[in-house]
Amino acid sequence: MASTSSRSLPVNETFLSYREWPGEKGPLLCLPSFAGHKGSFQRLAERLSPEYRLIALDLRGRGDSGKPQQGYGFAYHARDILALLQQLDIERFAIIGHSFGATVGTYLASIRPDRVSAIVLLEGGADPTEAVLEAIRPSLAHLESRFPSMRDYLEAMRKLPWYRAGWGDALEAYLRQDVQRQADGTVSPKADANALRHDLDLHFLYSMCLHFPALQCPALFVRAGDGLLGGDRGHIFSEAETDAIVRWIPKGRRLDMPGVNHFTLLLHDDPPVSEPVRRFLQQALAR
């Protein structure tokens, strides 16, 4: 099912860009990863629509949304989302969040439990260790870089270990949408490095584990079988951390997804999470 074209709506002195796929059930609010954009849900949406209506958005500072200097942290992202949903006349919804987007979803579901009917946490929703967050900071430098051409950019991305193993049409399409072409032919990432630094600075002030008990809806935590560095190396959450997260969430359950990593479980030509997510939603939303 093809999506509608991207649209934007004004929220809280900026604007959010979103993409929508029509469907009968839902809606499902799709929140991308830390530096990601709404296009990461394209293949998943093609498999869940038209059974479900999906709305994928770019958080402020990312993708095609506004990039103000202030207004970061989970509370501001939740405020933006609620303002967008008000304009779309959406009162109750389910969430599918990837990585940082899952953590935004956890915060939102904990402060507005009456609004969220179910939540899918794709390798996110909790606090990574401080070492993981600090490891992210140097990677933000590439957001301030320009690449001579789209070809050079894609070649650089293909060399990254977390992309190399799962390279395919879906991943390449996502990466092409992740940059903007300049007048001189160079390309640069859309996400704003300073915006992401603000979010990193504020991350631990929220202590997400304290929000888990407030989640009243059914929750599915999906853990990728492969680490970011290949095999079992470089997992965002260890086995023990994953078990602890699921135990803390009152209606939490766990799903392990072999053969994919943190990115390729979603940025995949045929996302392996599609059918498990469909089954979970059918059960959770039938209650």
Describe this structure in words.
The two termini are 27 Å apart. The protein is an alpha/beta fold and 287 residues long. It has one domain (7-144, 189-285): Rossmann fold (3-Layer(aba) Sandwich). The chain is built from 10 helices and 10 strands. The strands form 2 sheets. An 8-stranded mixed beta sheet has the order 1-2-4-3-5-6-9-10, sandwiched between helices. A two-stranded antiparallel sheet has the order 7-8. It has helices at 42-48, 74-87, 100-111, 130-139, 150-158, 161-164, 169-177, 193-202, 239-248, 274-285, and strands at residues 7-11, 14-21, 25-31, 52-57, 93-98, 116-122, 179-181, 187-189, 219-224, 252-257.
Task: List strands and helices in order, with pairings.
Layout: E1 7-11, E2 14-21, E3 25-31, H1 42-48, E4 52-57, H2 74-87, E5 93-98, H3 100-111, E6 116-122, H4 130-139, H5 150-158, H6 161-164, H7 169-177, E7 179-181, E8 187-189, H8 193-202, E9 219-224, H9 239-248, E10 252-257, H10 274-285
Parallel strand pairs: 3-4, 3-5, 5-6, 6-9, 9-10
Antiparallel strand pairs: 1-2, 2-4, 7-8
Helix pairs in contact: 2-3
Short description, anyone?
The protein has 287 residues and is an alpha/beta fold. The chain has one domain (7-144, 189-285): Alpha/Beta hydrolase fold, catalytic domain (Rossmann fold, 3-Layer(aba) Sandwich), CATH 3.40.50.1820.
Number of strands: 10
CATH architecture: 3-Layer(aba) Sandwich
Sheet having the most strands: 8 strands, mixed
Derived from helix and strand composition plus strand pairing, the structural class reads alpha/beta
Whole-angstrom Rg: 18 Å
CATH fold-level name: Rossmann fold
Overall number of domains: 1
Could you give the distance between the termini?
Answer: 27 Å
Largest sheet strand order: 1-2-4-3-5-6-9-10
Strand content: 15-25%
Q: Provide the succession of SSEs.
A: EEEHEHEHEHHHHEEHEHEH
Highest-level CATH class: Alpha Beta
Query: What do we call the CATH homologous superfamily?
Result: Alpha/Beta hydrolase fold, catalytic domain
**So how many helices?**
10
Shape: globular
Low-pLDDT stretches are: none
Share of helical residues? 25-40%
> Mean pLDDT, nearest integer?
93
